[in-house]
Amino acid sequence: MGLYAHHHKGGHCCPPGEAIIDPPQYVVNDYFHPQIVPVIHPIQIINKHHCVPVPHHQYTVQTKDVFCPTDYRAKKGKR
Predict the structure, then answer these.
(1) Cβ partners under 8 Å of residue 34, min gap 6
(2) Residues 6+ apart with CB under 8 A from 6
(3) Entry pTM
(4) Hey, which residues does 13 pair with through a beta bridge?
């Protein structure tokens, strides 16, 4: 007896009917693979230069020659 050969009581045999095809059912398998994605983090280094006043003392020296009149009489009396 084949797959579609069915006998009913009374000896009547029905021919097989046409196949009914359901819409397909899908089984989805997800696979995940690492993908390298560059992430760039820019860093800027800023060097700030500041001028700071620092005292640097400088001296000028002047030499003067001063001539004093000599008074012999005043010197003699002091001794």
Answers:
(1) none
(2) 13, 14
(3) 0.34
(4) 7
* CA gap 15, 32 in Å, rounded: 50
Separation of alpha carbons 51 and 79, rounded Å = 64
Residue 13: C-alpha distances to residues 18, 19, 20, 30 (Å): 16, 18, 20, 48
Per-residue pLDDT tens for 27-72? 999 999 999 999 999 999 999 999 999 999 999 999 999 999 887 6
Alpha-carbon distance of 67 to 79, in angstroms, equals 23
Return the amino acid letter for 7.
H
Q: Which two tokens stand for residue 49?
A: 């230069």
Largest pairwise CA distance in the chain: 181
Q: Encoding tokens for residue 64?
A: 């003067």
